[in-house]
Amino acid sequence: MQKNRNDVWVGLFVLVGVFALLFMALKSANLLQVNFQPTYDVRARFDNIGGLKVNAAVKSAGVVVGRVKAVALDPERFQADVTLAMDSAYAFPKDSSLKILTSGLLGEQYIGIQAGYEESALKSGDVIGETQSAVVLENLISQFLFNQAAKPDPANRDK
To answer: pLDDT digits over 23-54, tens only?
Structure first.
């Protein structure tokens, strides 16, 4: 009887451990979102979103104020159409601007929102017009290399 009771406790302990590991894995991969606050949806169009993913943070002054709800390609403009679920506790002006930023050198991408100065606030269904696309590291490197190759070589200058 004692062996059976120990087996149940060990099994229960292992089960709790597996659930804890699963919870941490989903939370660290930003796939688990536990938020019971009301939100409103706004949209924005970007030329290039880089590695931006659904559930990426929307931050203002380092504070998470929303999440990326959906990402799609606009077939008419060939731009990325990003839907943001903003926390209702934060009312940003309609002339706010968005830019895609990276946390760290090669870190995860998120959207930074810079509040504007207009008195009327964003509401559900609005489209934010001022956007700045992601900086793609490969594009920066290729531009640098192209500019270096286009410069004249000072050693081969005619004298």
So the answer is: 888 777 666 666 677 889 999 999 989 888 89
Strands 63-74 and 109-114: unpaired
Rg of the chain over all Cα atoms, to the nearest angstrom: 24
pTM passes above 0.90: no
Domain ranges, residue 17: 1-32
**Domain shared by 9 and 69, yes or no:** no
CA-CA distance, 86 to 73, in Å (whole number)?
21
- Same domain for 96 and 58, yes or no, is yes
In this structure, which amino acid lies at residue 105? L
Among residues 16, 101, 94, 29, the alpha carbon closest in space to that of 64 is found at 101
Q: List the one residue out of 144, 142, 125, 135 whose CA is nearest residue 86.
A: 125
**Residue 133 CB partners (closer than 8 Å, separation 6+):** 46, 47, 48, 49, 50, 99, 100
Q: Tokens standing for 135?
A: 């900086």
* CA-closest candidate to residue 113, choices 125, 127, 101, 126: 101
